[in-house]
Structures are given as C-alpha cells and as structure tokens.
Amino acid sequence: MTLSAVVFFLLPHWVAAETWYVKKSATKMQAEASARSKVLTKLKQGTAVEVKKKSGKFFQVLAKGKTGWIFRFKLSKKAPADSQNDEDVLGALGGRQKMTARESTSGSSIRGLSPVSEQHARKKGATPESIQAVKDMENFKIRPEELDRFLEKGKLGEYSQ
Question: Is 99 exposed, middle or buried (0-12, 13-18, 19+ CB in 10 A)?
Fold first, then answer.
C-alpha cells in the first residue's frame, strides 16, 4: 500500500475528531455507549475531550489518555463559563437554555417569588403557607445519585435508548 493510500484511509479519522468540553463536573465516561455500562472515570466541568465518533446519543471520546463514551448532551462545543452552577438540575437533563427578553418575566417566577412578586401575591390573597411552599420549592435540592435514579427509572436522558 502506498503512502498516499494510507493517508487517504487515515485522514478521515484525524479530520473527524473535534474538541468538545464537559458541561458539568462528575460527568461519567463509560466503557460502552450505554448509560448502564461500566464507568471508567468521571470528568470535571470544562475538561476538553476529543470526539472520535458518534453512536446514537453517545460520543466516543479520548480524554486524559482514556477512550470511552459520554452522553452527547453532557458535552458542548464551547468551553463552559466558570460561573455555571454544577448543581443545576436542568443542566443535567440536557444543558442550559438561554432566556429571551420576553421570557424574563416568567423566568423570575421559576426562581421563586421576588419581594415585589411576594407583595403582589399577598395583596391578591395568597396564604402564608402558599408563599412558604414556593420558597421551599426554590430551596429544594437533590443529590446527583437521586437524579440519576430518576432518569433511569423514567428512561430519560442517557437512559432513553
């Protein structure tokens, strides 16, 4: 086989590789393209990975000298900003979404009652119990293991295959 033939066959593999970044700390790199596969390692937010190939909802990657598979929605073409919150549940389900200007008014209610909203709710007859319930929901946190069990049971995210 000539050198040009070798280059022809190997070149697509070199060209196809792209650098992507881990969106969230503790992202699992697995032995196979399956959420139930053995976890080889967990990567930190911002870790650069070299995407080798794609299979369904998983990317085969090279990172820190290891080759494994990562659920594609755990990766981004852009390096994540340092200000991202690793405990962001919605981020774990598929990444952050930017909010448009017209969504900003409803966006504040997603994060709980602002002082102005709370005052308005009281004027409209909301009970103290209801206001406290919104505050309790705003402060609710779950552990990554609980989120993983929820996703698996519901066949969501990386378990949807």
Answer: exposed
CATH number of the structural domain spanning residue 39: 2.30.30.40
- Show the CA angle centred on residue 28, arms to residues 22 and 34, nearest 5°: 115
- For 31-124, list the strands marked E by DSSP: 39-43, 48-55, 58-63, 66-71, 75-76
Q: What is the per-residue pLDDT for 89?
A: 47
Query: Is the predicted pLDDT of residue 116 greater than 80, yes or no?
Result: yes
Q: What is the mean pLDDT of residues 126-150?
A: 88
Is residue 151 domain-resident? no
Q: Which domain, by its residues, includes 72?
A: 1-84
**pLDDT of 11 strictly over 50:** no
137 SS3 class: helix
Is 69 part of any domain? yes
How many structural domains compose the chain?
A: 1
User: pLDDT tier at 110 (50, 70, 90 boundaries)?
Assistant: low
- CB distance 80 to 45 below 8 Å: yes
Residue 138 domain flag: no
Helix pair 128-139, 115-123: axis angle to 10 deg: 150
